[in-house]
């Protein structure tokens, strides 16, 4: 098969403050270009989504790897998933500490264990065995995440609505289809500010934070994790696509369902088995970028879509 490759990335659906707007937009554009350069050379969608998410994990503007938010104890606990639509192979990690690139570690779980997800101490012990580099928590923490955490310490623990607000910072992800027609997804996050120690969100949960199946397409989600899990958002989008909806209509229908049924907001990126794609959200903002053919598309605010020639972007 010689299919036109496509990649789409997101930097999280939330109320991105103006001072992070430019760095968020530049970050997703850079990540999309990095992933697409792999696809353009005939590389796999798995390789492309991992590389794109690593760029976002290394960028302090985003809540994943460097820049991750802090839990109630002021610590960093990270979740990630990567999935291969060719054979539904999946690797996920949750509640891991001191790892700068959880997405690469999730891929090690996929490739080097008989399991689909490792969590907590056991996961960190396996990371050491795999020689995944250990970084100090201080290296992952930013001034922004400390400030946000200090703000949240002012509130009590009965903050369901606060967690389901758009201020809590959220997640990165990528979906891609390669020239062989294989689709993949990758999602990585620090979760939500002031979450309970041990809380696991939607991101590493198969069918919630992401899903990929060559039969339909691939999805990576972002937003209020407890709501996303309740509606298995990624799989719900693919269900609508399976039933004939475009990625855009399927995404809107699933996000509306989440909003109406469980009062949850979020966003997602989707690519179909034919290379159609969408970036949709019900939050104030979501930084996203996609490369399709010779064009780079990107946006931040609802209804916004800019485009430029890929040639100018690189
Ligand atoms: N969507 C990220 C989280 O809720 O953990």
UniProtKB/TrEMBL annotation:
Site feature (Cleavage) residues: 170-171
Annotated substrate binding sites: 199-202, 222-225
Transmembrane residue ranges: none
GO molecular function, one term: asparaginase activity
Residues annotated as catalytic: 171
GO biological process: L-asparagine catabolic process via L-aspartate; proteolysis
A Pfam family recorded for this sequence: Asparaginase_2
Entry-linked InterPro entries: ASRGL1_meta, Ntn_hydrolases_N, Peptidase_T2
Recorded catalytic activity of this chain's protein: L-asparagine + H2O = L-aspartate + NH4(+); Cleavage of a beta-linked Asp residue from the N-terminus of a polypeptide
GO CC term (a single one): cytoplasm
Enzyme class: hydrolase
CDD domains per the UniProt record, alphabetical: ASRGL1_like
Key words, A-Z: Autocatalytic cleavage, Hydrolase, Protease
Top-rank lineage group of the source organism: Eukaryota
Family named by the database record: Belongs to the Ntn-hydrolase family.
Protein name stated in the entry: Isoaspartyl peptidase/L-asparaginase
The organism of origin for this protein: Pelobates cultripes (Western spadefoot toad)
This enzyme's EC code(s): 3.4.19.5, 3.5.1.1
């Amino acid at each position: 098969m010689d299919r036109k490759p496509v990649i789409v990335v997101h930097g999280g659906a939330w109320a991105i403050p103006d001072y992070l707007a430019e760095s968020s937009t530049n970050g997703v554009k850079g990540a999309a270009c990095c992933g697409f350069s792999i696809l353009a050379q005939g590389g796999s969608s798995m390789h492309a989504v991992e590389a794109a998410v690593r760029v976002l994990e290394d960028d302090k503007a985003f809540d994943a790897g460097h820049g991750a938010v802090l839990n109630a104890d002021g610590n960093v606990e990270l979740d990630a998933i990567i999935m291969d639509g060719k054979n539904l192979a999946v690797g996920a990690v949750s509640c891991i500490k001191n790892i700068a690139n959880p997405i690469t570690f999730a891929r090690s779980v996929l490739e080097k264990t008989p399991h689909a997800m490792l969590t907590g101490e056991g996961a960190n012990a396996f990371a050491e065995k795999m020689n995944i580099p250990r970084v100090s928590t201080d290296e992952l923490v930013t001034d922004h995440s400390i400030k946000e955490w200090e703000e949240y310490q002012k509130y009590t623990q009965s903050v369901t609505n606060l967690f389901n607000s758009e201020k809590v910072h959220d997640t990165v992800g990528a979906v891609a289809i390669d020239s062989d027609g294989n689709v993949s997804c990758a999602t990585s996050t620090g979760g939500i500010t002031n979450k309970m120690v041990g809380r696991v969100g939607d991101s590493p949960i198969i069918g919630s934070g992401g899903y990929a199946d060559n039969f339909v397409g691939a999805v990576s989600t972002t937003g209020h994790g407890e709501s996303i899990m309740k509606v298995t958002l990624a799989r719900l989008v693919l269900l609508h696509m399976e039933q004939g909806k475009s990625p855009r209509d399927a995404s809107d229908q699933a996000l509306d369902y989440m909003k109406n049924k469980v009062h949850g907001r979020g966003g997602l990126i989707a690519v179909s088995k034919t290379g159609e794609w969408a970036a949709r959200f019900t939050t104030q903002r979501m930084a996203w970028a996609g490369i399709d053919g010779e064009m780079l598309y990107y946006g931040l605010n609802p209804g916004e879509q800019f485009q430029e020639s890929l040639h100018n972007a690189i």
